[in-house]
Amino acid sequence: MKFIGAGSRPGRPQVHHDLVFTIPNLLTVVRFMGVPLFMWLVLAEKEYGAGVVVLTVMAGTDWIDGYIARRFDQTSKLGRVLDPIADRLALIAVAVTLVIAGVVHWLYLAALVIPDAILLTLTLSYFRGHPDLPVSVVGKVRTGLLLLGTPMLVLSRLETSFSDELFTAAWIVLGLGLVGHWIAAYNYFWAILRKGRMRAHHDDGTA
Prior knowledge:
Layout: H1 23-44, H2 48-71, H3 77-100, H4 106-127, H5 137-155, H6 163-206
Helix pairs in contact: 1-2, 1-3, 2-5, 3-4, 3-5, 4-6, 5-6
């Protein structure tokens, strides 16, 4: 089974419906709800093991909602906007939590936030909203690596015989994820710029 684009059926066009109450959208809301739960477990309770379980569930819903949407024709315009926003907010909120808990340095948070801040500024200047661009393969791989590396890093805080090895492996995965994050941001930057200029040119021509 393929992980990227799982559930898609070749030869069948993907239609984005005006649906709101779908299983994929519900799973995305569950992912939103997992963020405050993770923050409470790590910051208030110091329950790193339970925090890993929450992160694992959040990562699982990210893959499952996409599979269900493509496999059972439940893709929606709302989900296309909501899903990447949920990913971004979850990754940033979790990073903030880990910085506060002393698990990661603030530079890790900066490496996540700076590209997104630049893209958000560019998007608002051109579209005043969502640019409606397809998620790139690099973006999907980037998200997967960050969602994998984060629970590995949290798990390395537990006192086990392989904590050091897990810590090293986690940062290798997160490092690759951050590289992918900047590559994806670079690609999205130019995609937004091209689409924004085309839209501006079209508006000028029809004015």
